[in-house]
Structures are given as structure tokens and as C-alpha cells.
Amino acid sequence: MHERRIRCGEALYIMLRCKAMAHAKLSTKNQIVIPREAREALGVKPGDELLVVVRGDIVIVLQKPKSHSAAIRGLARGTYPKDHLKKERESWD
């Protein structure tokens, strides 16, 4: 069976289902320019705030949500069976 080798950048792109993937270079002042493709995919403009998330050796740049509670709402949906909370509460009696 022929196995295709996937480069690290390609694997990350596939895993995250990215809208854009571009290269950026760190300047001598430790700054980067967010490539046009990435800015357009995020829908950001000058003055917008971004979140920089570091997970191991991976850096993810996200548009800062206007409301953090709205951004995480429903994140755990489907984690537990439908009647889990009811059963838990009944077990307290």
C-alpha cells in the first residue's frame, strides 16, 4: 500500500480545516505581519484585537470574540447523554 507523506504544515492545515495558510517572517523587532490571505479569512482590519494561542510548538491566531461567553456557548454540547444532568441531580437525594 502506497503511503503519501504529509508535511507538518499540510497536516496542520488539514487538521484545523483552515480558511487560509500563508507564511510570515519574524522581524528583527520580534514582530510579524499577518498575511493578507489570513486577514481576509479572519475578516479583521487595522485596530482589531487578535488572540494568540500557543499549544506546544503550534501558534494559533484567532479573532478576539466580542463576547467570550458567547464564543464558548455550546462548546460542551453533546458531551454527556441527554438525561445525564437529571440522573446526577436524582443521585444527590
Explained architecture:
The chain is an alpha+beta fold and 93 residues long. It has one domain: Pemi-like Protein 1, Chain: D (Ribbon). The chain has four helices and two strands; from the N terminus they run ααββαα. A two-stranded antiparallel ribbon has the order 1-2. A hairpin with a 2-residue loop joins strand 1 and strand 2. The longest helix is centred in the first third of the chain and has 9 residues. The chain is elongated, with a radius of gyration of 20 Å. The model has no long low-confidence stretch (mean pLDDT 78).
Tag the structure with descriptive keywords.
93 residues; alpha+beta; Pemi-like Protein 1, Chain: D; two-stranded antiparallel sheet; 4 helices; 31% helix
How much of the residues is beta strand, in percent? Answer: 5-15%
The DSSP helix count reads 4
Secondary-structure class: alpha+beta
Distance N to C terminus: 58 Å
Which bin fits the share of residues in helices? 25-40%
Q: How does the overall form come out from the CA principal axes?
A: elongated
Determine the CATH topology.
Answer: Pemi-like Protein 1, Chain: D
Q: Let me know the average pLDDT.
A: 78
Q: What's the CATH class label?
A: Mainly Beta
Which regions contain 5 or more consecutive residues with pLDDT less than 50?
A: none
Please provide the count of β strands. 2
**Any guess at the CATH architecture?**
Ribbon
Largest sheet: 2 strands, antiparallel
* Number of separate domains: 1
Helix-strand string: HHEEHH
Radius of gyration from CA coordinates:
20 Å
Order of strands in the sheet with the most strands?
A: 1-2
